[in-house]
Automatic annotation (TrEMBL):
One of its GO terms (cellular component) is plasma membrane. It comes from Papaver somniferum (Opium poppy). This is non-specific serine/threonine protein kinase. It is an enzyme of class 2 (transferase). It is a single-pass membrane protein; Single-pass type I membrane protein. Its main location: membrane. It is found in: Cell membrane; Membrane. Keywords: ATP-binding, Cell membrane, Glycoprotein, Kinase, Leucine-rich repeat, Membrane, Nucleotide-binding, Phosphoprotein, Receptor, Repeat, Serine/threonine-protein kinase, Signal, Transferase, Transmembrane, Transmembrane helix.
């Protein structure tokens, strides 16, 4: 017997069990030692032996107590271990679950601190423990916390768990098999995550499950038969996954408990099993959107408890039983849309007085509608569209009169049927709560009843594709809530009511293919929510109201084609900046196409054919970079075809039957004869051979003019060169009395370097021996200029064919002309000339950086050596990285805060940070840089055009979030890039690393680990080796301490250094610009970290 163990046990172990077993508390002395406890028992036994007043019952109780106490004393250690282990296991399981979380943006588990014993784990957020067993977790509720993780297998150790609620997160990977250990589990909700894999078959061991919801995931495989053994389950939600195979027949085994079964939106096939009819308590059945076929078992219609019955969008067929309203008396929603059911709609539905939703859409039902639909007093949605209902006769719509009694009705969808007759005037007496009235594609004739204006709750009115005639009731303009009005393909006449201007919530207005006349009312310009306006194929006249063109809300269609509109196209067309398709074809519009058309930057289709437009094709059309279809045929356009049309990604171009002349371009859309047409333009020449146009012969007169132009250009160029030569000569003469040139002035030594010189300097731009790298807008070569063969240079040749290259060259020249700093790459000279083939040539010449760029040092093999130009292994120690971090911060601080006009780099990344012989960092590549127009505001936005261009440039992973959403360039954007660069330098991971997915990025990854005790988990592995070294040269460590103490102090200081630099990187790369520090603060912080590491104080 273990006496010491017994003492511990007696202090709250077995005594507590004795109490819970029903033994009197007086029989256990919790304050006594083990020896006295034994004496107490012995004394009581003597009393029992010699006292004749003891009742028999007391003797039995004492006897049982003695057995229990002796048993506990003999196994005291084991009992204690079980209790402590239970406490430990639950805590460890929770910690293991937390460790599996890769992202916790809401800080939901911030209280889950394994190192903080002051807060018991039962008080952690989302954790609930048992009252009876205070150290056992019974509920874990972390729903809607935006957690990114997989479910830890250790969850199976929470054996007392009854509720596991993890829905609405980003849980990934498979559901662990260990879930099957939770035999006490009653509620499991893993819905709305991204779990994959199959359902663990051993989930059937959770025999107490009542509620199982794993819907809206990416689960695959078949539904396991074992689910049929969950005899207590009431709710089973499996919808919105990728399950395949058949519905298990075993589900019929849970007939006494199951009330809700959701299998919709999967890939289940074959037939519906008869066994489902055994679910006599079933209230909710949803098998929507699968691949089920065959006939619905007739017994399924006999489950009288059913309230919701949905088999929509399968491949089922058959008829609906005539007595459906009697066998399903409690039905509230009956939906079988999207199948192949036939027959008539049973009149017995009228007996289902609780029916709210009846959806039989897209089947093959025939006949007339039940005359007693009005008995559905609770009816909300009636969807019978796309069948063959009705006879085309006059009384087909009489059933609408009975719907007046349905005061809760929201939706009537009867489109695409065979209903005939006139709309009854009583339609205006339907409930004012009616939201949708859809009667399109029938054979309804007559006029639109004026009473329809009383349906003030209408949001969607669709009467398209009928035989309606007469005018459009002006009262429709009173339907203030109307969002969709579609009256196309009827025989409506008269004018478009000006009252439509009252419909400020209108989103779609479609009146095409009618006989409408008169002009377009300017009041439509008041429809401030309008996204689509289609008035095509009518007889409208007059000019296009500028108020309509000023509707900036128009984003989908503006189609006024096939009318008789006249006059010019107003310049206000440029206000349609969000419009997708503009169709003004087949009208009588005249004048020139306004250049403001180039401001419609969202256009994908532009159709101006069949008008009287004249003049040139405006070059501004080439600004429409998203344009896919352009038709300007059958106008009176003249002039040449703009060559810049080649740059558009057009799939269709029609310029036929105009008066165009000159050369037909040969590239872009003009390379595919089936994609464009230039027929009927007799003065065109050239183009691809398939056009069979004559060659473009330049006349002598034109050739003479061309020669004169060339001579004038040559004279002007020679004059400018002479002026430059004189200025240089004057400067040299003046500078003889000045000190020798510094490195900052070196660029002036090589003014006017020629293409030939650069060709020789780079061995003919040899890619095998001289190529250093390739960037966004060109290639960089190593070269030796003849003026100074002792210093190699880097020649950046601009690829002018690349879109934006010329702009990049000018931006870089403008920037480099204004800046001087030791940590910025110095320019030697530049070249703007022509090559030997007569092509334009531009290049920048920089000082050569012998140690390449930072990217190669961070991500190349540590043992690699870059030939003679780099004689040391590519390994950056911590102090070198800190120096580089300071260098880059210094450069950015200069650009942002010390230049006359603040400069934004816009493309900071490791490959644009170059290292010289001494590993001093120089920031280069200013091809995307921008000047801020207002130096007093370092966050001043650029103009709109610049903002839009810069928003799509830069490098993925380093671009600040606001740029990706169209934000203007700002110094905060550079700060974000600098923060990402810092994190990459010290973690060794690119921001585009494969590990960063599903919401995890380098910022959040670093943020989760920026504590000294966790920093080693994320830092570059090459820096970890330094943690094991003793910094014997560290002057801040006293030499009277032991070597181990010195090592520990050094390791702690290095951890603190790494933690501090990661914290700066996280702060700089904050998602919101307002949360970032500026570079003035950043350089101070980084310099302080460097000083700390080298021996100073922060």
């Amino acid at each position: 017997m273990n006496v010491s163990g017994c003492r511990e046990f007696n202090g709250g172990g077995c005594g507590a069990q004795a109490l819970s077993s029903g033994y009197p508390k007086s029989m256990i002395d919790h304050n006594s030692k083990c020896s006295s406890f034994g004496g107490y028992v012995y004394t009581n036994l003597l009393g029992i032996k010699y006292s004749i007043s003891v009742h028999v019952m007391e003797m039995k109780l004492l006897h049982r107590s003695l057995i229990l106490i002796i048993s506990c004393m003999s196994v005291s250690v084991n009992c204690l271990i079980v209790i402590n282990r239970a406490k430990s296991n639950d805590r460890l399981a929770l910690v293991a679950f937390k460790n599996g979380i890769t992202e916790d943006p809401l800080g939901a588990l911030s209280s889950w601190n394994n190192n903080n014993d002051s807060l018991h784990f039962c008080k952690w957020k989302g954790v609930t423990c048992s009252h009876r067993h205070p150290n056992r977790v019974t509920r874990l509720d972390l729903q809607s916390k935006s957690l990114v993780c997989s479910i830890s297998p250790h969850i199976g150790n929470l054996s007392f768990l009854t509720d596991l609620i993890l829905n609405s997160n980003s849980l990934n990977k498979e559901i662990p098999q260990q879930i099957g250990r939770l035999f006490r589990l009653k509620r499991l909700n893993l819905s709305r995550n991204i779990l994959d894999g199959e359902i663990p078959s051993n989930i059937s061991r959770c025999s107490n499950l009542i509620h199982l919801d794993i819907s809206q995931n990416n689960l695959v495989g078949s539904i396991p038969d074992e689910l049929g053994y969950l005899s207590n389950v009431k709710v089973l939600w499996l919808q919105y996954n990728n399950f395949s195979g058949e519905i298990p027949t075993s589900l019929g085994n849970v007939s006494t408990s199951l009330t809700h079964l959701g299998l919709g939106y999967n890939n289940l096939d074959r037939i519906i099993p008869n066994t489902l009819s055994q679910l006599t308590r079933l209230k909710f059945l949803d098998i929507t959107s699968n691949k089920l076929s065959g006939i619905v078992p007739s017994s399924l219609y006999n489950i009288s408890s059913l309230e919701v019955f949905s088999l929509m969008f399968n491949q089922l067929h058959g008829t609906i039983p005539f007595d459906i309203g009697l066998t399903l008396p409690n039905i509230t929603s009956f939906s079988v849309s999207g199948n192949s059911f036939t027959g008539i709609i049973p009149n017995s539905f009228a007996n289902s007085s609780s029916l709210k939703v009846l959806q039989l859409y897209k089947n093959n039902f025939v006949g007339s509608l039940p005359y007693n639909l009005g008995h559905f007093n609770n009816l909300i949605r009636l969807n019978l569209g796309e069948n063959d209902l009705g006879s085309g006769r006059a009384n087909d719509l009489d059933f609408i009169n009975s719907l007046i009694n349905c005061t809760s009705l929201k939706v009537i969808f009867l489109g695409v049927n065979n209903f005939g007759g006139m709309l009854p005037s009583s339609i205006g007496n339907l409930t004012t709560d009616l939201d949708t009235l859809h009667l399109a594609e029938n054979q309804i004739y007559g006029s639109i009843p004026a009473g329809i204006q009383d349906l003030v709750g209408l949001r969607s009115l669709v009467l398209a594709g009928n035989l309606l005639a007469g005018g459009i009731p002006p009262g429709i303009g009173n339907l203030q809530n109307l969002g969709v009005l579609d009256l196309r393909r009827n025989k409506l006449s008269g004018s478009v009511p000006s009252s439509f201007g009252n419909l400020t919530r209108l989103i779609e207005l479609t009146l095409s293919f009618n006989i409408l006349t008169d002009s377009i009312p300017p009041s439509i310009g008041n429809c401030e929510s309008l996204q689509s306006l289609v008035l095509s194929s009518n007889r409208l006249t007059g000019s296009i109201p500028k108020q309509v063109l000023e509707l900036s809300s128009l984003s989908r269609f503006l189609n006024l084609g096939n009318n008789s509109l006249t006059g010019p196209l107003p310049v206000e067309v440029g206000s349609l900046k969000n419009l997708g398709i503009l169709d003004l074809s087949e009208n009588k519009l005249s004048g020139q196409i306004p250049s403001s058309i180039g401001e419609c930057l969202s256009l994908t289709g532009l159709f101006l054919d069949g008008n009287y437009f004249q003049g040139n094709i405006p070059p501004a059309i080439t600004f429409l970079r998203g344009l896919e279809s352009l038709s300007l045929s059958r106008n009176n356009l003249s002039g040449i075809i703009p060559e810049s049309l080649e740059n558009l990604k057009l799939s269709k171009l029609n310029l036929s039957f105009n008066n165009l002349e000159g050369v037909v371009p040969r590239y872009g859309v003009f390379m595919n004869i089936s994609a464009f047409s230039v027929d009927g333009n007799r003065k065109l020449c050239g183009g691809i051979p398939d056009l069979k146009l004559p060659n473009c012969n330049i006349s002598r007169k034109k050739r003479h003019v061309k020669i004169i132009i060339i001579i004038v250009i040559v004279i002007v160029v020679l004059f400018l060169i002479s002026v430059m030569f004189l200025l240089v000569l004057y400067w040299r003469t003046k500078s003889e009395t000045k000190p020798p040139l510094t490195a900052l002035d070196v660029g002036n030594q090589y003014m006017g370097v020629s293409y030939n010189e650069l060709l020789k300097a780079t061995n003919g731009f040899d890619r095998s021996t001289n190529l250093l790298g390739v960037g966004s807008f060109g290639s960089v070569y190593k070269g030796i200029l003849s003026q100074d063969e002792s210093k190699p240079v880097a020649v950046k040749v601009i690829q002018l064919q690349q879109r934006g290259a010329t702009k990049s060259f000018m931006a870089e020249c403008d920037t480099l002309r204004e800046i001087r700093h030791r940590n910025l790459l110095k320019i030697v000279t530049c070249c703007s000339s022509i090559d030997f083939q007569g092509n334009s040539f531009k290049a920048l010449v920089f000082e050569f950086m012998a140690n390449g760029n930072l990217d190669n040092w961070l991500h190349s093999d540590a043992s690699s050596v870059d030939s003679d130009d780099q004689l040391q292994p590519k390994n950056l120690t911590l102090d070198r990285r800190l120096n580089i971090a300071v260098d880059v911060a210094s450069a950015l601080n200069y650009l942002h805060h010390e230049c006359q006009s603040p400069i934004i780099h816009c493309d900071l990344k490791p490959s644009n940070v170059l290292l010289d012989d001494d590993l001093i960092a120089h920031v280069g590549d200013f091809g995307l840089s921008k000047f801020l127009s207002n130096p007093s505001s370092y966050s001043q936005h650029l103009n709109e055009q610049d903002a839009s261009s810069i928003a799509i440039k830069g490098s993925i992973g380093y671009i600040s979030p606001e740029y990706g959403m169209g934000g203007a360039a700002s110094t905060e954007g550079d700060v974000y890039s600098y923060g990402i660069l810092l994190l990459e330098m010290f973690t060794g991971k690119r921001p585009t690393d494969d590990m960063f997915k599903d919401g995890l990025d380098i910022h959040n990854f670093s943020k989760m680990h920026m504590l000294p005790d966790r920093i080693e988990e994320i830092v570059d592995s090459r820096l970890l080796s330094e943690l094991g070294e003793v910094h014997n040269d560290d002057e801040t460590i006293s030499y009277d301490v032991s070597a181990n103490e010195r090592r520990n102090i050094a390791r702690d200081k290095m951890r603190q250094t790494l933690t501090s630099i990661i914290q700066i990187g996280v702060k700089c790369s904050s998602k919101l610009p307002s949360d970032r520090i500026n570079m003035s603060k950043a350089i101070l912080d980084v310099q302080a970290v460097k000083n700390l590491f080298l021996g100073g104080e922060m």
